[in-house]
Amino acid sequence: MLKEYLIVFFISMVPLVELRGAVPYAVAHNLPLLQSYIIAIIGNMLPMPFIFFFARKVLEWGKDKPVIGKFFTFCLEKGHKGGEKLKEKAGKGLYWALFLFVGIPLPGTGAWTGTLAASILDMDFKKSVRAVVCGVILAGIIMGTGTKLIMIIAGLFG
Question: Following CA atoms 34, 39, 42, 46 in sequence, which dihedral angle do they give, to the nearest 10 degrees?
Answer without folding.
Answer: -160
